[in-house]
């Protein structure tokens, strides 16, 4: 694993779990609030997903956008992405281990070390899915801190909710929200905002970055862990061959869904490269932005601050 600009150091974890039981651990997911949280993402009659408010914003995007290599109408992409993650939710963690040979755990550990999370802080984990990062943040912020695990997809959020309940994370709430608006959350609410392997699936990335800046407190930081562009051309070709052959095959065998993993490979290629994403963060208003390449640029951690 390689990186630029910084070598992380490991800090012993001494924080304890909160004794305060969140009502979200024993209650249904938020629904019917003025902020637009919703509890059901699928309408049985038309096989469509009712998404949290903020979807279908086409500012910066245009009438069409990409869904992998396919060109689709902008308002259709959220539905297509919702279907992908509804399909893969139950096998998501297993497939991550198989596809990355377990290396995704090292990528996430590095991102957590870069987060600078401290006891008593408030953390928002966007597109947090099955809760890998939120589980660690829950421990690190301690009983005086608070973590919100947020996702646009109910199937993914339910998996994360079950995992964190089993782990005894009593200082975590679970909220359905769209990254493009983050409507349930007030301005200047969080010390740290993270999004791990989720930004590439967002239709309007510019709007999402602006919303992340809005909900951060002054002095807070954004951390983006995402697939990126390999920095060595020969390695890039091998990576392409693996992505477009092995990933759909594993998806078919393990998850009975090759198309979702074909989309995964395509969505990575359509995501902005390291320098482009850094520029997008700066345009959204983040300061002191940088990025760190991992595994020769297959993945990059981007960081920016609200000053």
Automatic annotation (TrEMBL):
PROSITE patterns: SAM_MT_UBIE (PS51608), UBIE_1 (PS01183), UBIE_2 (PS01184). The keyword Hydrolase does not apply. Residues 1-61 are annotated as: Disordered. GO terms for biological process: aerobic respiration; menaquinone biosynthetic process; methylation. It catalyses: a 2-demethylmenaquinol + S-adenosyl-L-methionine = a menaquinol + S-adenosyl-L-homocysteine + H(+); a 2-methoxy-6-(all-trans-polyprenyl)benzene-1,4-diol + S-adenosyl-L-methionine = a 5-methoxy-2-methyl-3-(all-trans-polyprenyl)benzene-1,4-diol + S-adenosyl-L-homocysteine + H(+). Signal peptide: none annotated. Pathway: Quinol/quinone metabolism; menaquinone biosynthesis; menaquinol from 1,4-dihydroxy-2-naphthoate: step 2/2; Cofactor biosynthesis; ubiquinone biosynthesis. Keywords: Menaquinone biosynthesis, Methyltransferase, S-adenosyl-L-methionine, Transferase, Ubiquinone, Ubiquinone biosynthesis. Residues 1-17 have a biased composition (Low complexity). It holds the Pfam family Ubie_methyltran. It comes from the Bacteria. Residues 34-48 have a biased composition (Polar residues). The keyword Zinc does not apply. S-adenosyl-L-methionine binds at residues 130, 151, 178-179, 196. Its EC number is 2.1.1.163, 2.1.1.201. One of its GO terms (molecular function) is demethylmenaquinone methyltransferase activity. Methyltransferase required for the conversion of demethylmenaquinol (DMKH2) to menaquinol (MKH2) and the conversion of 2-polyprenyl-6-methoxy-1,4-benzoquinol (DDMQH2) to 2-polyprenyl-3-methyl-6-methoxy-1,4-benzoquinol (DMQH2). Belongs to the class I-like SAM-binding methyltransferase superfamily. MenG/UbiE family. This is Ubiquinone/menaquinone biosynthesis C-methyltransferase UbiE. It comes from Acinetobacter nectaris CIP 110549.
